[in-house]
């Protein structure tokens, strides 16, 4: 019964995405969980490219997620976009003119 459910997870994009996010470190998965629409749009773009070339698209969303380098994707965003604010730890130095 459980195998039947898990074998069909590729048909449920959010389930496949949640399973992939569960494999990542906490800060990365917390940030990327809000990027589902963007990542799903990338997947649809890949499916469109395959179909536009005249082939039948067979790429499943789960397979698409497995090809993504999550660390590289996470690091491609700026620290501010990732919710990291290094200036909180080291405030800017004031210049004093006498």
List key phrases describing it.
98 residues; mainly alpha
Please tell me about this protein's structure.
It is a single chain. By secondary structure, the protein is mainly alpha-helical. It is built from six helices and no strands. The chain has helices at residues 2-7, 13-21, 26-32, 36-52, 61-66, 70-75. It is elongated, with a radius of gyration of 19 Å.
Give the helices and strands as they follow along the chain: HHHHHH
Oligomer: single chain
Strand tally is 0
Ranges where pLDDT stays below 50 over 5 or more residues in a row are 1-10
Q: Helicity range of the residues?
A: 40-55%
Instruction: Give the helix tally.
Output: 6
Give the overall pLDDT as a whole number: 79
Distance between the termini: 77 Å
Estimated structural class: mainly alpha
What topology emerges from the helices and strands here?
Layout: H1 2-7, H2 13-21, H3 26-32, H4 36-52, H5 61-66, H6 70-75
